[in-house]
Amino acid sequence: MSINSFGHLFRVTTWGESHGPALGATVDGCPPGVPVDAAMIQHWLDRRKPGQNKYTTQRREADEVRILSGVFEGQTTGTPVQLMIENTDQRSKDYGDIMDKFRPGHADITYWQKYGIRDYRGGGRSSARETASRVAAGGLAREAIRAIAPDVQITGYMTRMGAHEIDRSRFDWDQIEQNPFWSPDAQTAADWADYLDDLRKSGSSVGAIIEVVARGVPAGLGAPVYGKLDTDLAAAMMSINAVKGVEIGEGMSAAMLTGELNADEIFMGNDGKPSYSSNHAGGILGGISTGQDIVVRFAVKPTSSILKTRKTITKAGAETEIITKGRHDPCVGIRAVPVGEAMMACVLLDHMLLHRGQVGGQIGENRGRIG
Amino acid sequence: MSINSFGHLFRVTTWGESHGPALGATVDGCPPGVPVDAAMIQHWLDRRKPGQNKYTTQRREADEVRILSGVFEGQTTGTPVQLMIENTDQRSKDYGDIMDKFRPGHADITYWQKYGIRDYRGGGRSSARETASRVAAGGLAREAIRAIAPDVQITGYMTRMGAHEIDRSRFDWDQIEQNPFWSPDAQTAADWADYLDDLRKSGSSVGAIIEVVARGVPAGLGAPVYGKLDTDLAAAMMSINAVKGVEIGEGMSAAMLTGELNADEIFMGNDGKPSYSSNHAGGILGGISTGQDIVVRFAVKPTSSILKTRKTITKAGAETEIITKGRHDPCVGIRAVPVGEAMMACVLLDHMLLHRGQVGGQIGENRGRIG
Amino acid sequence: MSINSFGHLFRVTTWGESHGPALGATVDGCPPGVPVDAAMIQHWLDRRKPGQNKYTTQRREADEVRILSGVFEGQTTGTPVQLMIENTDQRSKDYGDIMDKFRPGHADITYWQKYGIRDYRGGGRSSARETASRVAAGGLAREAIRAIAPDVQITGYMTRMGAHEIDRSRFDWDQIEQNPFWSPDAQTAADWADYLDDLRKSGSSVGAIIEVVARGVPAGLGAPVYGKLDTDLAAAMMSINAVKGVEIGEGMSAAMLTGELNADEIFMGNDGKPSYSSNHAGGILGGISTGQDIVVRFAVKPTSSILKTRKTITKAGAETEIITKGRHDPCVGIRAVPVGEAMMACVLLDHMLLHRGQVGGQIGENRGRIG
Amino acid sequence: MSINSFGHLFRVTTWGESHGPALGATVDGCPPGVPVDAAMIQHWLDRRKPGQNKYTTQRREADEVRILSGVFEGQTTGTPVQLMIENTDQRSKDYGDIMDKFRPGHADITYWQKYGIRDYRGGGRSSARETASRVAAGGLAREAIRAIAPDVQITGYMTRMGAHEIDRSRFDWDQIEQNPFWSPDAQTAADWADYLDDLRKSGSSVGAIIEVVARGVPAGLGAPVYGKLDTDLAAAMMSINAVKGVEIGEGMSAAMLTGELNADEIFMGNDGKPSYSSNHAGGILGGISTGQDIVVRFAVKPTSSILKTRKTITKAGAETEIITKGRHDPCVGIRAVPVGEAMMACVLLDHMLLHRGQVGGQIGENRGRIG
What we know:
homotetramer
């Protein structure tokens, strides 16, 4: 049992603090023979990198990944892959004024209470910077998936920022990479730009909802009843900083449906595989993938570090006020998109390996045939 | 790694099928010296038992638990506790007509695809009957919590059935045990009764939202970053049959808030401990308990087994229709209340043990002091 | 992490005390589609059963196994298999006089110190009776191995009892089942019979060495560096009651060899696979199977419950003496043979599943080809 | 499940290859508040470092450890500690001639068969260089033990090199650090020096036996039945490169004893704690520490890389011969002493944490009292 690890067979342990010398991911269980180099992992890290536009924190991290082990002559060896990112921008002086005060909505107070340690340098281990390690591990997972199940496509996007939601009738996969918010709806992206400008100027922040979809996932992945695909996805997403809710398919709204509306009817598709009238299930039944799109959604709370005065206490127990200066994200949800994708990649690869271990056969090949 | 186990130190493995000879929970890691007997576990199972009123399935199970190991002379010994429930009502003939057809919204099809096995006797392992094992394990967890942290109180209730939500202004803890729906709002309970009568007569079903609150939980529980308290709660709840979404505190709505609204301000309470202006965080910051109420919410989809004709396919791949006869719940969410409580109990006890293992000291005693 | 579980993907949790209502094994991760019924498991339990001849304890247990879950219509379903054995002979009155005294060489004193519980009914969880659960799980593992890798043969035998060792020049596989000691050497078996008769009459006991060999195991099994095949075998054997040493191949004697004597030279066999001049390695190099016989050996200490007066103390801390009456084995090593075989079966199956999960392909098919 | 991790709560994952850029240990679960810096870890690494005298390989590695995370202002924070050692001496050209040939007694052939990867640069992950990571982790474990249970002392030494064993009548704890072989017997150390000189000149190698003793360990550590203290020690030692056998206390010789000789009699010591007439048990009964010295012994096979011609095959399946040039150890067992100590430290700390998690209380405080 490791509290900084996740995954069954593809097992990722992240390490490192926001202002320490480095952080990274120790990835155990990556299959051998996967073609990979640092540039392939870097590609995914660059998507998450802060400071790329005015909508995210101006903290500038090169976020350059090095592969220290587990890859030889351009392919994985089956031994642990160490992915290290050195911290180049450790301006901890910005944080000096919060050495004794706890930031409301932050983990400052609970880390202090639990561990008796105050890492006042920007949150230490509780910082969203930890998610860079996840993105690196997710990049490796994507390469392994490409080798094992090349039809799988994983895409994340934002569906809501504060009160502003996308219009699903304008949903366009190709738009997602065209705007700084990973919005599949160009018009909403433009609205968000204005809204966020105002928020940033006012020193406030706002929450967001992210959706991650995996297309081309074969039926049969998932390990009931405590390694269900949705269980592991829920844990994966909820473990991301600032996430407060996770939904599969219909999600919380499933509570409002009747049985006949909710249960997706089954037909035979033209490809000789089962086909469904709808996807309220989010591609998962009984914790096992159906072959439909896997749909996960999660809510990211607004950044707690804001330029607004808030009431709080000190370590000495005195009541006081705090304003969190420094370089922060008005909508940290934006940067959660690549993180959600990375977690999806890790969970899917893990279940592919687990499936072939427990049930046998190639990925996509099933023991039970239909037709 | 066991796919039918959950928990780090308090580790529960459930086993058994809906229509096999028995089912149960193998509980490893219960601390020694906890006073417990079968009647104490039975108390919690009786709360979940079906057939108690007209709103739940008329399947009648005695659900009588036997303790086969790990308890000697009225207290736990520190060795594995085996909790077994024999299946007395195995009327599998009701299910004969679904031997070849897959029920829409059910795990029939994915279990078949994955394992190549069709347990047509009511769902086998994928049946909600598995949750009886959870309730038994949760009963044991409650007794251990009572011994270690007697101030902790765990209470579940229903907040929504279909379109009908409780009115929080009428919230009354004492109401919860007074109606068959675990509603904290008596008036809504009456509305639900009428609504469910109609649903049952029409052969339909509906979803629900369950909230589970733990009061009196000390600050400091939770193991970042992949054993966070909210991560483990999300996994625990999502692993329950038919659950499609999980929220902590503000949940999905956190996406709609600004930073200043969301971040709970901190004060000093009269008891010399930190006190908060609000609880958007649901009692968890950075994956660690704050000492506020732990608030988890989950959505249960409507029962898929309904008396409505639905389109589906057979194992042979032929398109057909199905009506699921038999004894089913119009709102399976009702019976999910004790299950959610049980999962909360297991997760909390587990984190109490993990905390004292990793950090040391008694439960409720923290390394970092305030004031 | 479960302290009463072992295995990575084929994961066995044993439960139960020597004088409780029942004991058993909860087996998670058995592949689906393995033909199995209770009689197949019973076959292996009967080999371990006490009271079969005058050389083992006269405690008579029916040791009848029931399969409570995970098997449907004669084959495994992929869900947990619960194997339960009820305790029918619970004559705990024999043990009444040791309620307060600790038996030297027994776990009585350490269980008391650790857990604060004294299960005076014959050792409770620390009794060798726990190994019945292992044999049941091993029986299931053997059936799964038969389905996945039918060439594998697992055989245990005794090589030493006290000062009396077998003569390897008389080694005969067929002899093993022909004598009550699982001796591959008929003449030594006859000597042991006389020796043990004397021991039994004198109320003493003696230790033994057991060797377990797996033939037909394909190259490539084992997961370096902490899931090495030899690492897992060492843990598996050392976890058996009364075991004090474990050796692989040459074992402790490897310390006496020079490099040129120890390193098995490699040739090409007639079957187109690598062939070795000798097997000092015990079939394992770098923690991975070579395709040679896997050879494990372990030492079982003499039974501590003897009819000789020994000095000890009471719970109250008073010095006293003890004679352990009751029904005991003069050479408990005899009954350890089927237990060692069972552990070998569990470890091998586990590594077959792990291998196909992590590396892919069928068992016996390797990624790296020679020739 | 991670195959490159060990430990329950103090969980160490090692990573890195002999000739890659770096190697190290990701240590999760170290308690917070342990005073530690790089120099403290370096101290233990320096003991293992090769090239210190003519008896070990002349490969020169600075083996300088860096702490990349988990330590802040001189103490552990409770978050993962990353211990990295860069490889400065990567002279892989020495190994060029073994690109296609498999070295007898090495993991070359099994890694190739399993993973389909040949890391010809000195063994890659299977190299004994991996043990540097263990020693680093063990150094951290020692500091944590010092904080939690300051009376514990862990000492390793060599008891046998080939045919030459120490004379226990000359055993002297103070001698161990006085000779290059960690021998507790000065006279045998002198004999070994001559013997090893001859071996080195002849290009041969020899095996060894190492004993590791932990003094001052409180009674009560160990988690039956699959997390027994001896089980975990057996796995820990057997996972070290080249180890072929592990013994606890009397070890394999227990097979030769009678019950009355083997079972250590119990008295009351002057300190009010149980005291034993002897220590055949090696300080462990039923998998739980007794308070006596914990005694573990393991055999290290002779180095397989020797300057003697040996028969082998190529990847293409051709029979050939090989001489392994390069810088190697005539008795690799010497360097295994600090590794054995490190594993003992990790296992003991892990069980201290596990014990306080599962049973509660301070280390050394027991639930069951005697007297």
